[in-house]
Amino acid sequence: MGNCLGSASKAETQPGSDRTDRSEGMEIKGSVAIITGAARGLGRAFAETLLARGAKVCVADIDTEQGQTTVAELQANHGEGNVIFVSCNVTSDDDFKGVWDATVEKLGPVNILVNNAGIGNEQKWEKTIEVNLGGCMRGTLLALERMGTNKGGSGGVVVNISSIVGLKSNPFGPVYSASKHAIVGLTRSLGNDFHLKVSGIKVQALCPSLVKTDLLANAIKNAFSPEVAQAMAKFASSLGSLTAEAVAGALVKLLEEGRNGGCLVVEAEKEPYYVEAPVS
């Protein structure tokens, strides 16, 4: 979810920035991806899209019942040997390591991690930070350990799912927005070419605007205050519809263009665009 309150500004890359040409993307066909929070919503759309392009996918989610249903449907369309489900609570180190081990065993070496799992609960701010930021942090650090060329791996890509409100203010969800700003900071910092040269791993962020998924409905239910819940519902009904499939298309763009540290925004009825850090 990305409670869109208008377009994020597009800053130009400044001379002397650490940003360099990162046009070399990855080949999705033949890759192996772990996607957290993939039982439904954006995560499921990501899985469907990568499978359609020839990747193998591990659907990781805390919702075991929905995850198994989703994978059964995906297997029917893309083959049993190409997609698996593994239960995962992204706040647990053991769960995340278990997902990685199971994926390698059943699908092969992982070279894409999509840290998608997230919640929007302003009333339980600690849990929101733990899932949104903690899940991305835990997954990214595990990827550096397992995929890093300096650790005996073959490199790869980590995509952290942030939000347009990770790049701008969001009065309707200050805690959610704070978690997504932190994900952008994590991505830009580990997405510096200094780290790429050490690990062979690109770190990127996808920043979608409002997508009408279960996460949005739950965010309204668990809003910061009754006044915010009312305003969110009214605001959501007035926006253009951004589909999960469109966001998944932007994920493909991000992977194929390969911009290390890149933060790609996707909004309804607009072409996806990158937003650079305000200070080089």
Kindly report how far apart the N and C termini lie.
28 Å
* Main sheet specs: 8 strands, mixed
SS summary, helix count: 9
Based on DSSP secondary structure assignment, what is the total number of beta strands? Answer: 8
Shape: globular
Beta-strand percentage range: 5-15%
pLDDT averaged residue by residue: 89
Rg, rounded, reads: 18 Å
Q: Give the strand line-up of the largest sheet.
A: 3-2-1-4-5-6-7-8
Low-confidence spans: pLDDT under 50, at least 5 residues?
Answer: 1-22
Helix content: 40-55%
Order of helices and strands: EHEHEHEHEHHEHHHEE
Structural class: alpha/beta
Give an overview in words.
This protein has 280 residues and is of the alpha/beta class. The protein is 44% helix and 14% strand. The longest helix is centred in the middle third of the chain and has 23 residues, at 125-147. It is globular and about 50 Å long. 49% of the residues are buried.
Q: Could you provide a short overview of the structure?
A:
By secondary structure, this protein is an alpha/beta fold.
